[in-house]
## 1
Amino acid sequence: MDKLGLLKRWRCPCASRGDGPESLGLARQLGVPPLVAHLLRRRGYVDAARARAFLEPSLRDQCDPAELPGASAAAERLAQAVRCGEPIVIYGDYDVDGITATAILWHTLRLAGAKVSSYTPHRIDEGYGLNTRAIGSLARDHRVIVSVDCGITAVEPARAAGVAGADLIITDHHRFDPDRLPEAYALVHPRLPGSAYPFPDLCGAGVAFKLAWLFAKTHFRCERVPEEFRALLLDLLSYVALGTIADVVPLCDENRAMTVYGLGQVKRTRFAGLNALIDAAGLRDEKIDCYHVGFVLAPRLNAAGRMGHAAQAIELLTTEDPEEATRLARFLTRQNQERRATEQRVFDHARQMILEAGFDHPEHRAIVLGHEGWHPGVLGIVAARLVEAFARPVVLLHYDDGLAHGSARSIPVLSIHEALGHCAGHLSSFGGHAMAAGLRLPIAHVDRFREDLARFAAERLGPADLNHVLDIDAECTLDDVDPLTFAQIHRLAPFGAGNPAPVLCAQGVQLHGLPQRVGPAGKHLRLIVRQNDRLASAVGFGLGHLAEKLTPGAAWDVAFEPRISTWQNQRRAEMNLKDLRRSG
């Protein structure tokens, strides 16, 4: 155990507890502790007006949906379809963002009296996005097709829709080639060339919500929609929150306001499916936050698309029958249990293969593995877990009938999309972004692909890059570990992409008593630490294996996230341990 920490390499800030003049001045203007002002400044909120807007997000500050490129034309066409009784089909992606986006438009159009249905492709049989065969089939019975969370690169499917005489409205938020945009009735996307939309980082559910809002205003030809529609739109923010958190888009600006409101709406929702999902997950008595969405609710919705077909998740979020909602929620919970077991089997097998092949050694800076027995629906999740375990890019492939297809995940300092582009000569197809991608290739090309990817990674990654970096936001003392201070820090929530949970560091603390292994099979670590006369409780989830390595009496630096726990109606400040290192 050296100064780099037991688990990660630490990157510490220059300033410490917020006692610099800028943080002290901001703290006085906002009426918050200096530590909170320091955390705001670390996130770029250096003046009081912007910092206050961040701490007190409001739906009144939402951008006008009419500014969203293509939204006005799309809203007019949907309103026309409703007036004329034309059938509309929503074509959505199979992940949580696509599922919630589909449900948002479905509920809105249904309340307006539309003839609306939905279509979701099969993850394994059809793959991501619009496909020409499905579009051709849908166009036979629908004059209007609306994509959500996909389609911005679907040049051929869009052409097929046009040939079939259907009006295709594409709503999306993903990256695209500006020189190869599909020809459609309307493209609704915040980043289109020439866009003046103020906030480019909406997810698919956010884009769908903006279109739903504008459709309602267009349908009724008024700025303030009838109360029934207004109530529906506010309730639909619960779905926007689910999609925004699950799709890991930045939790700032519009996304932050919609997520804050949506999280508050989740347990007050009138949607039978969401209520059933909350009950099936055992969250009825919890204050639902980003953790519950990201690690409890979203996996249940995702499980449908990973283990079977996402249509069942769409049914759950659109049904009005409480009994059917309960049945579907329990079914998705069982599928999620199956997904977890399958994921763990693949993870254990892949990890064993990595260790046996020596791919964990520093000279191997990218990992490519494949097996015919791996379920393709869990490869992305397992690849992400292996990146966390081994701190290098990972590609996992499923072998079937001469073809390999799978998922890739990477570390921040190397774009996996760029890496796959370098190896494109071996691939049948690929797509994605810097941190995640999908790919297909002949099994016969896998070895040469592995060699090329390894060379690319070796040229761009040094030994230091193969260590996860833990960013420390601020130094503190155990005097700061109290419920009032932590409650002020949690005003920065919800935490996620673009607004990570703050990590604090207390230096030179000592163990008070022996470390304890707690939880199932002693998986977690519990410590009592002391600094001068102050004691504090720390819990390290998944760190139980460190208990025997920690020496009482020695001085330690501890990195942690501030956490408030409730026990017997008493609120306590607790340190959510992220790493330790010997002090000095």
Note: The mean pLDDT is 93.
## 2
Amino acid sequence: MTPRQSETPRRGAPPPAGISDVARSARADAELQALRASDERFRQIAASVDHVFWVIDLLPTPRVSYVSPAFERIWGYPAEAVYADRALWLDRMHPDDRTTMRRAMEDWIAAPQSYRYAHEYRIVRADGRTRWISDRGQAVRDADGSCYRLTGVAEDITERKRAERELADKRAQLDAAFTHLNDGLIIVLRDGSVPVWNHAALRMFGYASTAEVQAPLRELSLLVELCTLDGTPVPFEDWQLTRALRGEPIVQRAARLRHKVQGWEKVCAYSVTPVEDADGRVQCAILQISDITERHRHDEEIRRLHADLERRVVERTASLEAANRELEAFSYSVSHDLRAPLRALDGFAEVLQREHGDTLPHSGRHHLDIIRQSAQSMGRLIDDLLSFARLGRRPLAKVDIDTTLLVRQALRTLAPLQQDRRIDLRIGELPASHGDPAMLQQIWVNLLGNALKYSRRRDPALIEIGARRLPEGPEFYVRDNGVGFAEKDAERLFTAFERLHEGAEYEGSGVGLAIVQRIVQRHGGKVRAEGAIDVGACFSFTLGPGAAPAPERPRTA
């Protein structure tokens, strides 16, 4: 490499003999021209590369005789600065590397047989930034081994060091994840060797270290038996690991593992991933395996309980069907055997009242009235009880219904309760409904009947019928200004035969609201009551999802 100044002649070199001064001068001029041309080519090359070419002459005194232009870009100092102060190079080394590099340089120069040198160190640039340098040099020595010149190349490797550090960090993270992963990971090479086990895999198979399992996969298969979940052994050739190494498709499976020496049996879930090279050849297979023995046991227990529950449901269903048949038979018995005597009782009392009423004293006629009213009340109670019992057995026949029409039909049915009364009846906008027409008609009859009955002492009576739009569908309501009820008694209203008012004051069997609740529940909805004593009551109900009819499709020509 060409130094900044002329090369120092080697010691002890005699002048060539037999050459005239003119010839020597001509040859010297030719060599000088060649040297200048070579020096120019070198400088052009040095100026075009990012590396720093450097030359240090040790004789007669140590000095930096040449650094290429890249020195200023990397160190942040011009070349003249290091020419003027040879200590600058060492001084700009990082304090943690300076002593090590000084000794390495001294040892390199002092050792007679040492020619090449390579080190990495850090420098602190003129602007304070730290850079990593890779320095490679060569010693030029005399015949006796004394070093009189050093040449070399310095390269900025900061980015490479950063990439190496990031790669090392990622590798450390992967190693930590591999080591501490809850699932077992095992790597099997193409030749069948099993060099890699993570901690979870070792624990799962009952080993303390990889040294205990450094054996080919076929030998390990003699210790561990792979079986299907039902206990059927799987031949070694059909193992997923073996098939993956042959390049066959991979699936996730669950299997039983039995260790023939340690004696344990486990249920495991596993998957195998083949790793191929650039030519598509399988180089290794990665087995991911987890112990699911407890989960499998729980699943089996759940399946057993489910099967037992299904059996009990079948038995209970059969028992309920039998009970329903008995209840139906009882209902018919009540309908025919009990209602017939009541009709006879009412009929004979009516005949007695009509044909012999004039001969009876006032108290006798009064007693006959009580007998007839009691028989008729008992008949209505039986009818309501039968209607309530039949609600659970009757199938729903849902259709789209005009709710306003249902309400007006119910009011016509309840016309006797409206005679000779001042009633402020307000019917708001009612959206269409989707349900069983007969059952929905019964809801409106019962709710409107209660509103008319319990507001009979108001003048005028106020009855409001409307609907609110909710996200799950419309909520219909009937509000009145009647006698009302205490808020704490709201839930009791829907219990069969539960009455909050005296029967002598307000007639009824106490089944109407229970029937309303049963119908609403069968439609998938909810019913609720709000009220206050002497203020009035409001009964609201929904009909569940799908209660609103589907919008009509536009007709096409």
Note: The longest helix spans residues 293-356.
## 3
Amino acid sequence: MKTRKHTLALMAFFIGVTNVFAQIEGDKIFKNTQILTIELTFHQTSFFDSLEANYLTAEYMKADLVLTDSTGTYSYPEVGVRLKGNSTYNHPNNKKAFKIDFNEYVSGQKHDGIKKLNFSNNFKDPSMMREKVFFDVCKAAGVLVPRSNFANVYFNGTLWGFYTVVEQIDDQFLDWAILDDDGNLFKAGDNFGGSNTPADLVYYGSTASDYTDRYELKTNEDVNDMTDLIDFMDFVNNSTSANFESQLFNKMELNEYLRSVALDNMFSNFDSYTGSARNYYMYHNMSTDKWEWVKWDGNEAFGSYPAGGGGGPGGGGNNVLTIDPDYHDADRPLLENIFASTSLYHAYLLEYCDILENYFNSSYIDPIIDSHYNLIKSSVYADNNKMYTDADFDNNISSNVSSGSGPGGGTIYGLKSFISSRVSYLEGEIDCDDIVSVEDMDKVENLELFPNPASEQITLKWENGVGLDIKILDSKGVLVYQNNPEYINSLNVDVDSWATGIYHLVFTSSNGTAKSQTFSILR
């Protein structure tokens, strides 16, 4: 199967070229894989007790910050610091996950244009790099994810631990990753600790209050309008199968979403929409009027979160090494409807096979793991607050680690062994040579248009066809309709407002093959 070219991968290339002249905000922290030094000085006595006391209220505390990256050392007075996380808060010592807000107390204060940084404590991860590797592969594969790096963190002169630094999903992320920040950005709710409010994209009615525990609006908070998200969920849940199939590509960036789902499945990353129905963002892009999917919180990738529930590694009754490509928990209507559609599921398999061939394999991922291991080894050894031993760290790069019961216990899969085992299983489940490639699909066949004459609506049906450009022109040659559908084989076009007369349909596919047909509107 030939490698496909994807919008985000191309965007990343052009942004890289542009950056010769103009840097993206955050490049000092995230451009190169490096280990930052973060030195926080708190002036309160018993500062950590205060941090813990503020955990439930998410209140920030003041601290002075000295940050060292590959470009130099920078000092910032009075940044805001607070503890964060759900399961990660159960880390058995004081090495908790936390967040820094540069301008919480000093208005406009930023580092390299960045306002906030998140610090993950590598809970349940002897390798100390699960999240970083997962995000690296996702980003390379053209999926929207936060940038990440590593850091040695000091509190009041004491080495607190080795952390993964993760970019905040906010307007600055939208600026560089999507090139649009005017729309609504929603974060999936945590639904942690037994909460029965998963961000499952189920339609619960038209009232915003029915969703406030499930989704949090992160932009345009003053307006606080969830109508667009509710309308999308209405579409997902209440459309006919034909309408869902034909219109989904108009509602969201479908290629990137299918790739995002495929990566969650391959990495058995089920603390996501696929499983727990959390840890994602949805952004309504005002430039395209489409929804875009952003991953979040990848610390349970490589099979550390059980498929189907169950409370910990190995639970849930499903072997995460042998999860089928179309696995999802119940009540995930977006995935259920995609997988129920022959054409959309085929589109998913196309993306799946492309990633399996080019990214999710030992040849691609093992060198990334080795590079990170060599970079962080001495820092991990120096971390006296980590959950696992130095031997566990070394062994978990390639092999499973077992460490008793409780949080972080059970069998934790080795990074390299997980990839090789998962690939071996998936190659036995999917014959990618039998998945028709994009290049083989681009010849349009059996084009139909009916009824003809029409009065209110016309239906277009065809076989094959990728990279389609559909144009309808009136008798004077004026363009009255244009569409670029993907992964569908039918389309309904409302014509009830069009004038009576003769119209010309022109179908062009990516290989340049064109078909035309004349029809009329009579009333």
Note: Residues 180-360 form one domain.
## 4
Amino acid sequence: MSGSVNRPVRRRTFVLGSAAAAGSAALAGPLAHAASAAGFGYTDDGTNYVVDTGASLVFKVSKSNGDLTSLVYKGTEYQGYGGMNSHIESGLGSSTVSVKQSGSTILISVTHGTLKHYYAARSGENNIYLWTNKADTSVSATRYIVRVKKGLFLNDEPDSYTYTTSTIEASDVFAKSDGQTRSKHFSKRRVIDYDYIGWSAGGVGLWIVRSNHEKASGGPFYRSLLRHQSADGGGLYEILYYAQNQTEDQRFGLQGPYVIAFTDGGAPSSSLFPGTLTTSWADSLGISGYVGASGRGRVAGVGITGRNTAYPYTVGLANSTAQYWGSARSSDGYFSIGGVLPGTYTLTVYKSELAVHSTQVTVSAGATTTLNSIAIPSSNDPGNAGAIWRIGDWTGTPSGFKNADLMTYAHPSDSRAAAWTGNVVIGSGSETSAFPCYLWKDVNSGLLVYFKLTAAQAAAAHTLRIGVTTAYANGRPQIAVNAWTSAIPSPPTQPSTRSLTNGSYRGNNHTFTYSVPASAWLTDTGQYNVLKINVVSGSGAASYLSAGTSIDAIDLLA
């Protein structure tokens, strides 16, 4: 059962899923079936527990370490590359592994110190349901990776480096001969943007359907690696905690289920998606840390006022043990977030990715906490402030700035990137699109913005604001206006890892404010004032790894 490496392969890939696209999936969801499909059951081959789902999927789990050692779908082996199995992190090592069958469910339990991991199979389904309970930092378990044999799926997407081996940064960012860049980090997607990740070719789809991420960290807008592919094979990930550009401490406890799903080439069933998947069949399996639907609550808000309806709004719930989120309805701001563990949470309302309101909310098991209409104070949204001029929109993102879209799936050195240098003229009509989304000390520090003021405006002091979304190596802006120079601001708290070069602009949103005295302005209203923005820091390396920052918006207040 070594597979079909030499069979024709269609290059076709699905990254972002939706319920509407899932109708064509075959045997991909929790199905209504007889107590046991033909062949459903497990055996012990001495080294592995071998599970036959009674559909088209047979898989093996090592009895010694809990690795997924075989993944055979319709007679073809999909698991493994480079001599490595599919597993938590890079493998747990010696573990206690057991198996039991409860009616139409088979559960394999893996215990390694304080960590517990589970695989479940349902009769007649081509799915494997996985849970991971990380209790503390004694085990470095941050991800599950499904390793897939080479040749079964091919793609040349941003998160693939199948066709290039030229390393341009660390050991994980590559450049093709045409100057385009590739890296497993270049997924494009925030957590809120996808339900599943994987590949489809030759009438077979292999997917990971993500969990609800209630025990993950980083919130709805966090970006992490989702998959990769190289000449050796491919990997699909469920990231439970990843320290790269991370804004929160990791959470502990049971995470899942996330699902390895095979289909006939279509998307996985929407019945597997987070927020849709129901697992009452797992209530009595004895999974450590498991809380069924009856032990969870819901938060619902009748509406949100004070919104700028040009932007989407998201409502997040977070405390030290769990996180959840949901979209606010565009017409009135209504939202509903279900499946919430009991506790007290900080509720945050985001305009795009910018926090504009927060409050506390308590959730009880089996109950809905209903909130009256939430009013966002006008002063909470910096976009409401009157400005003489503004570059960009206050959204908590660099959206609209030069190269902003590209930077979620490419390195700044990519041949598709527009020049990172170039100055900006207020009133040109291209202020935002001409302003680079990122500024670095070694690349484009010293960028100039030209603007004119009326006599009345030039007679008064004004506040200039620069909003940033993250920074690398404590990079922060120091400004000069004509002959006046600001003090060097203190660096805000930001993640210490790479960010701007691996597809993520998401850190801690921060606004720098500069009080510019009236004496700084030119008195000749026909002349351009010149704003110079330097990036300062004593840290960082060189070029795109020098100190840098991502821009949200810049404005001069009236």
Note: The two ends are 71 Å apart (CA to CA).
